[in-house]
């Protein structure tokens, strides 16, 4: 797989995690989840997404 393609894949996975974080906040707005769990989950997703991307890109660069 091309390096650019691998970086795109890492970005896509990070965006999916961010979308999951947004869904936590939307669930809180519609009172599907309590605010404590929704805030925790949403913030956790926003913190983890760049870390996941960085780890994946770092692994791809080590392969080359």
Q: Which class of secondary structure composition applies to the elements?
A: mainly alpha
| Residue windows where pLDDT falls under 50 for at least 5 positions | none
Distance between the termini: 11 Å
Strand content: under 5%
Helix amount: over 70%
Average pLDDT taken over every residue: 94
Task: List the total number of helices.
Answer: 2
How many strands in all? Answer: 0
Bulk shape: elongated
3D architecture notes:
Helix content is 88%, strand content 0%. The N and C termini lie close together (11 Å). α1 runs antiparallel to α2. The chain is mainly α and 64 residues long. It has 2 helices and no strands. The protein is elongated, with a radius of gyration of 15 Å.
């Amino acid at each position: 797989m091309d390096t650019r393609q691998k970086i795109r894949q890492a970005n896509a996975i990070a965006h999916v995690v961010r979308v999951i974080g947004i869904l936590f906040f939307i669930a809180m707005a519609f009172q599907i989840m309590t605010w404590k769990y929704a805030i925790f989950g949403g913030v956790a997703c926003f913190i983890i997404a760049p870390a996941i991307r960085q780890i994946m890109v770092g692994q791809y660069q080590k392969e080359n």
